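INFO batch 0412 | record 1 of 1 | parsing
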Amino acid sequence: MEKAYRYRFYPTAEQQQILRRTIGCVRLVFNRALAARTEAWYERQQRVDYVQTSAMLTQWKKLEELQFLNEVSCVPLQQGLRHLQTAFTNFFAGRAKYPNFKNKRSGGSAEFTKSAFRWKDGQVYLAKCSEPLPIKWSRQLPKGCEPSTITVKLEPSGRWFVSLRINEPTDETLQRVDSAVGLDVGVSSLVTLSTGEKIANPKAFDKHYQKLRKAQKSLSRKQKNSRNRDKARLKVARIQAKISDARIDHLHKLTTRLIRENQTIVVEEMSVKNMVKNPQLARAISDAAWGELVRQLEYKALWHGRTLVKIDRWFPSSKRCGNCGHILDKLPLNVRQWDCPNCGTHHDRDINAAKNILAVGHTVTVCGANIRPDRHESKGRLQKTLKGRKQKPKS
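INFO prediction complete | emitting tokens
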């Protein structure tokens, strides 16, 4: 199984100059290739692929104003074109939006394949660098493993990270256990378990909100393209990095614990992209990072031999009574506890939803039943009205 080990490193002044130049060249080549492909399509309805952009790169290196492209390793430049090709492939397949131009203020990254780095005595030597990267080895790579690809990343906060991709030879399957759990995600409580346990939401953004707000107001007052604006932007980026680190650290600890304690984990399939369109809940939902929570559960379950089950997002887990199965017509978000009008059972909204999610997850696992709620067909047909029509090209 392929894995990536991420470490922080502190480059020397010489290494930082070379790496910054390399990342800048990767960004330039990516943006030029994206502009060329966009122009070719809108002007000539012609698709440009990776082979053609690679030939363009060869011609760009011959231009007098782009001679600095020859001063860095050619491998990250080619990898940048491959990443652009992947972005267009995902766009045409409907999996992603149209590729965006890279911004200098957003940091950047450069990917090195085996021909552009050397692995010797547990140290990484990149192309054009005479000294090994001063990596802070927080954990060692598995014995006998050598990286196949190395990615160097510069964050907007100024921190440097390196990711080493390896082929993990060890089997990390955990011993089988008999427990299963259903998860109901929320804002006040990040996760409610079917066992009745509620895990609080750390709300990392709210803890640093006032400090971040003050820094962003200071940034907005600085003159553009000034040194003071760069300092203020760096201060904002460092606060945002601190928020992100706290959020990711809490999610890693939580998901690791759930994977170790349970054989089967059941969650609801959510569309966070649509949820954040609500302006009143967008910030709270983004701070909870439900999508990242499910993503970590997915790959950790794959690593350790666990089962992750996703149930349909339209299943009425909160409105359904876990005792008799009665479904309420309405259940506003401000109602956290309710009594079933059919059997009289008192329910905690989140715990009841987690128990229903677990029960439906067992049904899906055992017999693959469709748990999408029944829909009532409309008696009359609605007539669609077109707000606008496609205009014919003028002759």
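INFO post-check: The chain is about 40% helix and 15% strand.
INFO record closed
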